[in-house]
Amino acid sequence: MDKRTEVIEQLIDKTGLSKKAFAEQIGLPPTTLRSMLQRGVGNASVDNVIKVCKGLGITTEELEKMANGDVVRESAAPYLPELNAKDEKDIQTELQKMIDGLSGDSSYAAFDGETLEDMDEEDRELLKASLENSLRLAKRLAKQKFTPKKYRK
């Protein structure tokens, strides 16, 4: 069996979904996925390989690296639901509350004795980006955990 095929099978197993459910989730006919795994990824169409990789949360380059035994980032959950417009708005609202809470005389946090206003622009932007990424990941994990299976795509 092709090493890439083994990696894909392992990653699909990590999603906790059956191969059929995974295929349906990514919009691929289950028979196509089954054929791809039986004949090997090398014999599959590029579009289907990209679809599978995207569904697993990896790139085709990462798939090649994993197949070659190189260490690639471990994803906490290979598949996480996408965020919709309401989720994005909620994240921005929560981010603004956090930034407001870190600003001013009544701020409840300080970084090495500095308030948010004392930081240079680059540090403020890095902190804001870090908080936003954390909120996005938390929202996606919550959607995965609390969305009933019958409503998952």
Search tags:
153 residues, mainly alpha, 61% helix
Structure notes:
This protein has 153 residues and is an all-alpha fold. It is built from seven helices and no strands. The chain has helices at 3-15, 19-26, 30-39, 46-56, 60-67, 85-102, 121-146. It is elongated, with a radius of gyration of 20 Å.
**Shape, per Cα inertia axes:** elongated
Count the DSSP helices: 7
For this entry, what is the oligomeric state of its chains?
A: single chain
Ranges with pLDDT <50 over ≥5 residues? none
The largest sheet is: none
- The succession of helices and strands, N to C, reads HHHHHHH
Which class best fits the helix and strand makeup? mainly alpha
Computed over alpha carbons, the radius of gyration is: 20 Å
Question: What's the helix and strand layout?
Answer:
Layout: H1 3-15, H2 19-26, H3 30-39, H4 46-56, H5 60-67, H6 85-102, H7 121-146
Concise description?
This protein is mainly α.
